[in-house]
Specification:
Number of helices: 3
CATH class of the largest domain: Mainly Beta
CATH topology of the largest domain: Porin
Order of helices and strands: HEEEEEEEEEEEEEEEHEEEEH
Helix content: under 10%
Shape: elongated
Low-confidence stretches: 11-21, 336-342
Number of domains: 2
Distance between the termini: 65 Å
């Protein structure tokens, strides 16, 4: 799907480059904030034992619910993956003085979001265990759309609006966990772990729009600003464990090679049943299975039901537009060369 979208973008761009004059090119940058919401958009992982496959997905909040806390508390953090900077490039063609078509290329550089959880784990981490999570996203989208100008030809001030699809073609969401324990495996010895996972998406679609105003500095160059909104839920595809360093008794070990594919990789699917690679419907892990038990395939990813990450946002952009209007191009093309005789 991603290759097909990139091919469409390439054809679209080449068609613009070799079309008749009337082209415009935009470059811009700005910042966005996650759209107001009443649900917790950002998630993290809470270990349950030493096998990553047993981890529980929970909302990213701040909390201290340990019995040793002077004041127990839980506090929501209404953060979103779409918060952060963005850079954009657009190539387009004005069909008339008022309506144009364009292809946009956008890049998200997500802000690092964080949360801290302190709690008591009676089996592995012991009392007063701490998990600090940092997570962020980055990616590239395509935005085929239309543009409308609300001014007379030749006006200095150019109010405009635009509407486009949002097609994510590449990107990742990173989770980094820093876990500390003062009583690891009830040995009364400290331990810590540094974990990193990367999540990739599958084909998703949304839409975006903006209104703004530009000012023509010259007939070729315009400066503009716009406010924008984006509605997008990205469907999760696969999560992979990329780092698992465990420090215990002063020694750090890379635990990643010790995990099976089932433990290190999670595949998100739209349907689960008894044939899925999961323990939900009675299958056992190989080490825990008894004769006659159905077992999961340790050489394949663990399967869980798919969810979607909310990337809806609002923000602003400022940038420059380089224009080649029909009239100027034709005058230049039709200009005759007059030889000079001495």
């Amino acid at each position: 799907m991603k290759k097909e979208l990139l091919s469409i973008a390439a054809i679209f761009s080449v068609a613009f480059l070799f079309a008749q004059p009337g082209l415009y090119f935009n470059i811009s940058g700005g910042y966005g904030w996650s759209a107001p919401q009443q649900n917790l958009q950002v998630l993290t992982f809470q270990p349950s034992g030493t096998d990553p496959a047993n981890s529980v997905i929970v909302p990213l909040i701040n909390q201290n619910i340990s019995d040793s806390a002077s004041l127990k508390f839980q506090a929501n953090k209404y953060q979103g993956y779409a918060t952060g900077g963005n850079i954009n490039a657009v190539v387009g063609y004005m069909i008339t003085n008022y309506i144009g078509v364009e292809m946009g290329f956008g890049g998200l550089i997500g802000k690092k979001l964080n949360g801290k959880s302190v709690y008591d784990d009676p089996t592995v981490l012991g009392n007063n265990a701490s998990i600090v999570t940092n997570t962020w996203s980055y990616g590239v989208t395509l935005s085929p759309g239309i543009r409308i100008h609300a001014c007379k030809p030749g006006a200095k001030v150019v109010p405009f609006g635009r509407f486009a699809l949002t097609l994510p073609v590449w990107g990742k969401t990173i989770h980094e966990l820093d876990i500390t324990s003062s009583n690891f495996l009830l040995t009364k010895m400290p331990a810590s772990a540094k974990i990193r996972t990367e999540t990739e998406s599958v084909a998703s679609i949304g839409f975006n729009g903006s209104i703004g105003v530009g000012y023509n500095i010259t007939k070729w160059l315009r400066v503009y600003g716009e406010v924008l909104g984006n509605y997008l839920f990205v469907r999760i595809g696969e999560n992979s464990l990329k780092r698992y360093d465990l420090t215990f008794n002063g020694e750090t070990s890379d635990m990643l090679p010790t995990f099976s594919k089932y433990s290190s990789t999670t595949e998100f699917v739209d349907k689960l049943d008894e044939n899925s690679n999961t323990t939900i419907y009675g299958k056992k892990r190989k080490l825990m299975a008894q004769p006659g038990d159905k077992v999961v395939d340790e050489d394949k990813p663990r399967q869980v039901l798919r969810s979607a990450a909310n990337f809806s946002a609002f923000g602003f952009n400022v940038g420059l537009t380089f224009t080649i209007n029909n009239t100027a191009w034709k005058k230049k093309k039709n200009k005759q060369f007059v030889p000079v005789h001495q």
